[in-house]
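fyi for ur records
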Amino acid sequence: MARPGRSGDVLGASRARGWLHSGAARVGYPRGRRLSGRILVAQLVILVVTGAIGFTLLGLAQRAELDRAFEERAVAIASTAAAEPQIRQAMEQGAPAVPGGVVQTVAERVRAASGASYVVVIDLNRIRHSHPDAALIGQQVAEPLVVLDGRTHAGIDTGSTGRSANGRAPLYGPSGRLVGEVSAGIPETQVTSEVWRELPTLGLYAGLALAIGLATSVLLARRLKKITFGLELEEIAGLLQDREAMLHGIREGVIAFDPRERISVINKEAERLLGLTDQQVRGARLDDVLPDGRLRRVLTGTITGNDLTVLTDDHCLVVNRMPVALHGRELGWVVTVRDRTELVGMMRELDSMRGLTDALRAQQHEFSNRMHTLAGLLELGDYDSALDYAVDTAGAEPAFAESVRARIGHALVVGLIVAKATVAGERGVRLVLAEQSRLSEQPPHLRRLLTIVG
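which gave:
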């Protein structure tokens, strides 16, 4: 199969560009930013928005993770204080809840060493035995004890020292009896500070993702520009309108094939001439929709040439197949199909008329010859021979015409046969109609019959 060359470059770059500019102007689309610029801006907006959302969600997730970490740290501080022997012994012995006591002293030492905002020791009566605010020592807490189940607990506390990550641990005396609860808290300012320290790292990741996305968007824009041959959206829209108007507004069938010989475009005229439908053939190969024969071989390029004639059951078609390339890249093939049925029929009728004219001319010539012969006999005075000749010639042709008319019902066919017999007689050939020949007054396919007889 021939490959497309310069002569087959049907859609030249400059010519295609001219078509598209005119199409875009005709549909009335305003020319804005280039397609690559639009894609880049859209992708950038999407990346920025998604990056901001992701950064926010990641920050919230990091904050929640830090909250859990500080709550666990508060639980560890409370457990450490609950394990102090001095606190355990004093609480089991029922030491008074007074500022400066043993419990207060040890709890403050633990608080200072751990960086907690408070370490509060509470007995089973919910009386505070230690607190950063000495005025609250000896007073009862409002909330119930949560460590009566013997397990540690963590959460967020909004007590007198402000919002903090809170951890609570059960307090057992030296005998192993539950004697109270230790509550430790880490101020929220520490958690917030830790979050702010993590934000630059998170921002770096978000910026890196944004840069990668931006580079990908640039590559995508360039790729799309290459695929669309540098055309803008308005030009593509104009091209589509022009193509639809051209395909369905012409009286020639058009079929387009992609490089893999699959049908990509077929217009209404081609559907009518080939007896196919767009839904049936779109994306299919001709081998799957047409039987083997001259028509399929011409359409697929197996039989090459210009203005190839193909006869189908209903049409006489003239087929041309041309390769299509743009910027040196092979795009496929375009096949045009023209219906020559009416023209061929008219040419056949013209041939029949020419045959009748030739027959009339032959009859006129034969009649002239007979008149000259008869005049010569009369001039020679051979009247008997002249009479015999006149009788013979007068009865021969009418008899043949009557025999044809008796078996052939249609007048046009009768006239054609008699005319052909006259032409044959002029050329020394005798035309005989077989005895079994019969034709009705309204024969089917009269035009084709006249063509064959002629």
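Residues 75-189 form a domain with the Beta-Lactamase fold (CATH 3.30.450.20). thats all i got for now
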